[in-house]
Amino acid sequence: MLLGSARACGKLILLGEHFVVHGVPAVAVPVTAVGTTVRVLEDPQGRPAWLDSPFTGDVKVAGERLLDAALEALGVAPGMPWRVEVQSDVPVGAGLGSSAALSVALVRALSEAAGVDVSIDDVNAQAHALERLVHGTPSGIDDTVVTYARALAFRRSDALGDPTIRFLAPGRTLVLVLGAVPREGTTFDAVAAVHARKAADPARFARQCESVTHLVDSGIRAFESGFRRSLGELMDQNHGHLVEVGVSNAGLDRLCSAARAAGARGAKLTGAGRGGFMVALAERGKATEVAAALESAGATTVLTTEVT
Ligand code: MEV
């Protein structure tokens, strides 16, 4: 018998990743073309809640940890005879929010199965607590955009308070073409590497944060006004900052150059970097060309999504 079920989408950071961990604003959009579905079913063999997922290795271990933590947060006895089935087409560890999608879908499906009413803000808070188990000290932008499934500007608070969130509507539909290359390391490693850069040269890092803050503020205006040319230029500049803090790699740089050469307005890595996805802003008529250019440049996966 089905006791609860939920689907959560993927996400994409359009501007400001990594710097957002250090208090800089960032812009993220939902990627509804991919998602994670969690279904809670009665286990006929009466086994205590267990994760039935396609994951293997470390990802499976992390998923099981998330399940245990979500059950505990919802006050559900771990002995409940539930098969917690996960189906996902969000590429794992590639910048599209796979762990946030799993966290949000788990909280929603388990709370329904347990008969616990959880407000959307509580889903966000619980998913954020789960994200902390996987990523250490995440900014919260991933779980927030996945919970609300709306484009937003996000800024984490200086202290332990709530972040500032502003929902955004694009002035014009944005066509985004995404390409991936194999990932080196984890989000945790990439975030730690940026912390190390900051510690090594705090004054330089502070100047970079200031530049990225201006860039994201301009990006929010361009996003809301539908000025795709400026938004694309700002994405290019943002990629340059991410290169400077050491989170790009040769594969991502190659895909970004290929997208620009094929007529994209701008391109940058998205998410933690060191592989995973990049995102290009394309005119509708150019999206096929940009996608083909990414494939020719060695992208292992190419996706197109729209922000409306
Ligand atoms: C990962 O999707 C985004 C990062 O900025 C980390 C975070 O915000 O927690 C790299």
Structure description:
- With 308 residues, the protein is of the alpha+beta class.
- It has 9 helices and 10 strands.
- The two termini are 37 Å apart.
- Helix 1 runs parallel beside helix 2 and helix 1 crosses helix 3.
- The mean pLDDT is 96.
- Helices cover 44% and strands 24% of the residues.
- The protein has 2 domains: 167 residues, Ribosomal Protein S5, domain 2, CATH 3.30.230; 134 residues, Alpha-Beta Plaits.
- The strands form 2 sheets. Strands 1, 2, 3, 4, 5 and 6 form a 6-stranded mixed sheet that branches. A 4-stranded antiparallel sheet has the order 8-9-7-10.
- It binds (R)-mevalonate.
- The site of (R)-mevalonate (MEV) has 14 residues, from helix 4 and helix 5.
- (R)-mevalonate binds next to helix 4 and helix 5.
Structural class computed from helices and strand pairing: alpha+beta
Overall, the morphology is globular
Give the helices and strands as they follow along the chain.
EEEHEHHHEEEHHHHEEHE
**Bound small molecules, deduplicated:** (R)-mevalonate
Overall tally of domains: 2
Mean pLDDT across the residues is 96
**Beta-strand residue percentage:** 15-25%
Oligomerization status of the protein chains: single chain
| CATH topology category name of the largest domain | Ribosomal Protein S5, domain 2
Task: Spell out the key features of this protein.
alpha+beta; binds (R)-mevalonate; 10 strands; 44% helix; 9 helices; Ribosomal Protein S5, domain 2; Alpha-Beta Plaits
